[in-house]
Write a structure and sequence with these properties.
Helix 1 packs across helix 2, helix 1 crosses helix 4 and helix 4 packs parallel to helix 8. The chain contains 10 helices and no strands. With about 180 residues, the chain is mainly alpha-helical. The longest helix has 27 residues. It starts with 16 loop residues before the first helix and ends with a helix. The protein has a domain of about 120 residues.
């Protein structure tokens, strides 16, 4: 005779973690993480503040969880392109293709949440800042390894004369100067 499992005690869990994460991701990405409160997320999702705190521990825990979702959505594909064994020009084409996707068609905000979080890091908690630093390290390591592979294949010199690469490099440098001025 099989014994029926005891039903869970108390109210059934109605908290929708994925909805809260998706809403927070969209809000942080479009408005900046320092400009969105847990109350804003609760109002948009119908979740309770105690439920959000129970699930994520803190505002810092929610932002770190959102950064992990963003990593899977936007950072890991870049790392995957860089780590793929392919000619350097193919990797550049794939990177440009990924970074210039039609965001309206994909229903995602413009810009880069990772860059925005780094720019607003003084408003973020220690767990989120630690995750930001790890993501930055991972991205830099992937780019460094990709450049070293290009050098070993003798493809690096031709990249220095590539007009697209030079344009991208100038944009990156301008972005860095702009961030430093702010």
């Amino acid at each position: 005779m099989s014994k029926k499992p005891n039903p869970a005690r108390g109210r059934p869990k109605t908290f929708d973690r994925d909805r809260v994460l998706q809403t927070a991701l969209t809000q942080y990405w479009s408005k900046g993480p320092a400009n969105v409160s847990i109350s804003d997320i609760c109002n948009l999702t119908g979740a309770s503040k105690p439920g959000v705190y129970r699930e994520f521990g803190s505002d810092d825990g929610l932002k770190k969880a959102v950064l992990e979702v963003y990593h899977d959505l936007a950072i890991q594909p870049v790392i995957d392109i860089l780590e793929k064994n392919q000619p350097t020009t193919d990797a550049i084409d794939a990177l440009i293709g990924f970074m210039t996707q039609d965001r309206m068609a994909l229903d995602i905000p413009q810009g880069c949440l990772f860059v925005m979080m780094r720019a607003q890091s003084e408003h973020l908690g220690p767990s989120t800042c630690d995750k930001l630093n790890k993501v930055r390290h991972d991205i830099l390591a992937a780019y460094s390894a990709w450049i070293e592979r290009a050098k070993l294949r003798g493809e690096w010199i031709s990249l220095l004369y590539c007009s697209t690469c030079n344009t991208v490099a100038r944009c990156v440098c301008k972005g860095k100067v702009f961030r430093e001025k702010r």
